[in-house]
Amino acid sequence: MEKKETRVRFAPSPTGLLHVGNARTALYNWLVARHTGGKFILRIEDTDVERSREEHETQLIEDLRWLGLSWDEGPEVGGPHGPYRQSERLEIYRSHTEQLLREGKAYRCFCTPEELEAERQKAIAEHRPQVYSGKCRALSPQDSEARAAAGAPFAVRLRIPEKPLRFHDIVRGEVAFPHETVSDPILVRSSGVPVYNYVVTIDDALMQITHVIRGDDHISNTPKQVAIYEAFGWPVPEFAHLSTILGSDRERLSKRHGATSIASFREMGILPEALVNYLALLGWGPEGGTRETFTAEELVHEFRLERVTASPAVFDFDKLHWLNRHYLKLADPARLLHLAWPYFEKSGWLPAQDHAEQQIGAWFAKLVALFLPSVDCLEQLPDKARFLFHLDVEAARTDPENTAILQTESAQRVLAAFAQRLRENAAPLTPEVFKSWMNSIKAETGAKGKDLFHPVRIALTGAHSGPEFDKLIPLMEEGSQCALPTHVASVRERVERFLSQ
Ligand code: GLU
């Protein structure tokens, strides 16, 4: 048998930001396409004119590109099955409706909203399922034509066969819905607007989609779509409905749980490779292993839809941070410098990146390297480095733990000795000189260990713990030589200010 090329699609509605749930759907589709050497198609489902926005589409495209999920057919790249925006395909839907009406697979329904509501109320009173009675099913084609020609408004409904609607779901196995639960679904509203289930099926069929991979919020739509495929005599694709993503309280993941849009993760300074890795693990795991870090290439190699679990996945921000720290460690320093810069620029601590002198770039690279191991995401860097730009001596002195240290006589002697050496030596302080001074101060004052180093650290940074002096001292000394919008004080300036307050 000839092997059919796998064709999958991601079909977002541009009605808001791309969130983790949909991004995972996009990723799984992309992985299936890349794993099988098939095609990944992006289709914009913008038939809801009220809620669809161009800026959402632009953002969506930007987010997918940022994640590295490139598409083979779709907006911006084109392809043989376009257009790839539903709003540009209305004529296609219209001609298909005519075909179904002509063949008697669909019929016009002239029931008014009031009639439908009355039917619904009656069904409730009689404890029957609230589905359409099929009243207009029996209209003769002549009657139907005549009423339409006379201008009576009508919706178009699919004539559902009286048999269970079945489909195969790769995640859930065989799924069957009794036909009564589906009734005769509306394909086109009386306003002339075709409904989601209808257009999605036409598009999937014409775009030759072989696997429909999407969120399980669509599972109850699938029998209707299957009935539409069957009405047209089209082959029914495979389906894979992905489980819901939950928050830590096991409620559906939402804004309440924190940031969930892809744009917000990018703004925080989560790397795309970390997010891709994390999203892949939300409902999938590799065969026989506990491994958790995967590059995109490794995911492409390992990913199998058959290993996607039907049970809900719980979104774990700590794990995402853990993965981000892993990828921050591996990332190219020049890339990190470029990504970290805007956070400092926004704080008013760095000049605009494009015009900055090389000296500033080299200095900032050291800053990033020093603080990177202590952050979950890049957005946290300025806070870690704040003391370089702003040292609140008052706050440092009044912090209870610091006060206890500073009050001791030994601390005062250490600081006085340190200040004296700084006054006697005009040259910038190097880590080597610092080390020899600390040795001589130790000998002179008898202070050692914490008693020796904590007072100095408090004077320089405002806290008694922090990064190694070897790295910290050059950062302060070199920073003070850079023409920055916010001055970075040298070691000498810091000690003088500290002692003067
Ligand atoms: N536009 C639909 C959504 O965003 C697509 C559903 C589907 O993949 O069929 O939920």
Structural class: mainly alpha
The distinct ligands, each listed once, are: glutamic acid
What is the count of DSSP helices, taking H or I runs of 4+ residues?
A: 22
Gyration radius from CA atoms, angstroms: 32 Å
> What is the approximate shape?
elongated
- The stretches of 5 or more residues where confidence is low (pLDDT under 50) are none
Strand content: 5-15%
Q: Walk across the major sheet and give the strand order.
A: 3-4-7
Largest sheet: 3 strands, antiparallel
What is the CATH class name of the domain at 333-501?
A: Mainly Alpha
| Overall pLDDT | 95
- The assigned CATH architecture of the domain at 333-501 is Orthogonal Bundle
Tell me the helix content: 40-55%
What is the CATH topology classification name of the domain at 333-501?
A: Arc Repressor Mutant, subunit A
Number of E-type strands: 11
* Separation, N- and C-terminal Cα atoms: 85 Å
Report on the structure:
The chain has 501 residues and is mainly alpha-helical. It has a domain at 333-501: Arc Repressor Mutant, subunit A (Orthogonal Bundle), CATH 1.10.10. The chain is 49% helix and 9% strand. The protein is built from 22 helices and 11 strands. The protein has helices at residues 20-36, 54-67, 90-102, 113-125, 141-149, 179-182, 196-206, 222-232, 262-268, 272-281, 296-302, 317-330, 333-346, 358-371, 381-389, 393-398, 400-406, 409-424, 431-445, 450-461, 469-481, 491-500, and strands at 7-10, 39-42, 106-109, 155-158, 165-169, 173-177, 186-188, 211-215, 238-242, 245-246, 313-314. It has a 3-stranded antiparallel beta sheet with strand order 3-4-7. Strands 1-2 form a two-stranded parallel ribbon. A hairpin with a 3-residue loop joins strand 5 and strand 6. Helix 10 (272-281) crosses helix 12 (317-330), helix 18 crosses helix 20 (450-461) and helix 18 (409-424) crosses helix 22. It is elongated. The termini are far apart. The site of glutamic acid has 7 residues, from loops.
